[in-house]
From TrEMBL:
This is DNA-binding phage zinc finger domain-containing protein. InterPro entries: Phage_Znf_bind_put (IPR056911). Residues 132-185 form the DNA-binding phage zinc finger domain. Pfam families: Phage_zn_bind_8. Residues 1-23, 80-130, 147-169 are annotated as: Disordered.
Amino acid sequence: MAQGPRRGGRKGQSYTATPKLRSYDVPPASAVTVTRADGTVEVVPAQKPQATKKPARRRGPLVCAKCGYPIDGKAVRSTESWMKGKPVHPGAACPRQKVKRPTKPDPASTLPRSRGGTAQPYKSPNTRAVKESAWLQVTCPRCGAGPGTRCTVRTPKGTVTGSAVPHQERPQIVRRAMAAAAAQKKAQRTAQLPG
């Protein structure tokens, strides 16, 4: 067998490239005489070439490019520029068109309640985990608001107002105290167990 060209690799390594011959993939159309390295001769008889079929590609139902639902019956190709040539439902409109969501939120939903909107102020996970009555009993380390008073924040105009949402550190103090009390209770229970 004829060897391909020898090519150098990294660090002086070399490999022999196997030649791309048609005879490797296609059975011979006529009898072939093969001479082996040990001197023996073999005659390979001619074989009838067999055509290999490509596996059939399974396709699902056609899907409308406008609404995304399957098309029953005959499909029409779209002429609109953004989906030209793609299948769509026949007729003017799709029977089950997707509900379009508004791109911009309702202005009232972004305004806080103090200005006539419906938006809730963002509450951190610490604030949501602790009741308001619990964090109102602790002094805020950031703004210095005493027990029973809300945290104060400075507005862009420079005035100081009370906030509906506390600073993050205030409910965190309560959560740490609750966790320490739970750990102490657990330690007492394990100490009381016989064993």
